[in-house]
Amino acid sequence: MPELPEVETVRMGLLPAMEGRRIEKAAVNRPDLRWPFPPRMAERLTGAQVLGLRRRSKYILADLSTGETLLIHLGMSGRMLVSGVQAGQFHHDHPAPAKHDHVVLDMEGGARVTFNDARRFGAMDLMATAACDAHPLLAALGPEPLGNDFHETHLAARLKGRATPIKSALLDQHNIAGLGNIYVCEVLFRAQISPLRLARDVTSAEVVRLVPIIREVLTEAIAAGGSSLKDYRQADGELGYFQHTFRVYDREDSPCPTPGCSGTIARTVQSGRSSFYCPACQR
DNA sequence: GGGATAACCTGATAGC
DNA sequence: TGCTATCAGGTTATCC
């Protein structure tokens, strides 16, 4: 899926079309994505004003004037596409409906926001804004890696005694929220830690190294507009370009980019996911 | 309880 | 051209 930087990029792209604006019409074209949509979702959205757009982990949260919050998750292939806004000017020129356009929001002002998701691993739900933190998908999430609650003490405590590989531990959203397969690979490379190492064997010096690297990789990726592989687009349909900065992800058999290292990037599978790393300089 | 695996679903790509 | 196998940015349910 879009990981944290992609979701943040999408959120920012949605702001001009949605923030402060009323949803004039909501069309829901199927009963479910990963889970059934909440009852009467179209009716509950229609007429609501979007007070603000927040992000928690890989979720976008739209706070509505009705006292409810719309939760949006893009899954692996979800896209939020905006049409009808160009350079701050609104128009009513929208592309023809496409396959897998599941939810369409026609916004006050003329913009249209379309949720398109081929694989349907995405989700949408409505909840009382006051009870957001208790939502089953949000309640158990770890801290935001770019927030104040994520620090060495927290990470060290989450890794301590764990017999799972560090790769899996960083992917576990209970430990830290928002990292996905790409950015964990990139983080471990920059930290020169092998993805195969057990979490409990990562030293405190390495934890100290990991925290700022996690922040750095995510911040750089957000600045680049995220990474575009197969499905991901920014809300305006543009590609992100952080993928050009990948040092190990999807670079199997390439020379290791670490200066002075003569290693070759390897691929292995851990808990069903590809891990890319340099066996020579990641220890 | 912790950790690994299968499952959800479609599309793109590689190989024959 | 066309078939088959494999893989994909995530998360949950299930099994050992």
TrEMBL record:
Its cofactor is Zn(2+). Binds 1 zinc ion per subunit. It catalyses: Hydrolysis of DNA containing ring-opened 7-methylguanine residues, releasing 2,6-diamino-4-hydroxy-5-(N-methyl)formamidopyrimidine; 2'-deoxyribonucleotide-(2'-deoxyribose 5'-phosphate)-2'-deoxyribonucleotide-DNA = a 3'-end 2'-deoxyribonucleotide-(2,3-dehydro-2,3-deoxyribose 5'-phosphate)-DNA + a 5'-end 5'-phospho-2'-deoxyribonucleoside-DNA + H(+). Keywords: DNA damage, DNA repair, DNA-binding, Glycosidase, Hydrolase, Lyase, Metal-binding, Multifunctional enzyme, Zinc, Zinc-finger. The active site is at P2 (schiff-base intermediate with dna), E3 (proton donor), K58 (proton donor), R273 (proton donor). The keyword DNA repair applies. GO terms for biological process: base-excision repair. DNA binds at H100, R119, R162. CDD domains: BRcat_RBR, EcFpg-like_N. Residues 2-122 form the Formamidopyrimidine-DNA glycosylase catalytic domain. The keyword Mitochondrion does not apply. HAMAP family: Fapy_DNA_glycosyl. Monomer. Belongs to the FPG family. This is Formamidopyrimidine-DNA glycosylase. It comes from Tabrizicola oligotrophica.
